[in-house]
Amino acid sequence: MKILFVLLSSLFSLCVWAANAEVALVIRDHRFEPAEVRVPAGQKIKLVVHNQDTTPEEFESHELNREKLIAPGTKANIFIGPLKPGRYPFFGEFNEKTARGAVIAE
Question: Considering its fold, how many domains does the chain have in total?
Answer without folding.
Answer: 1
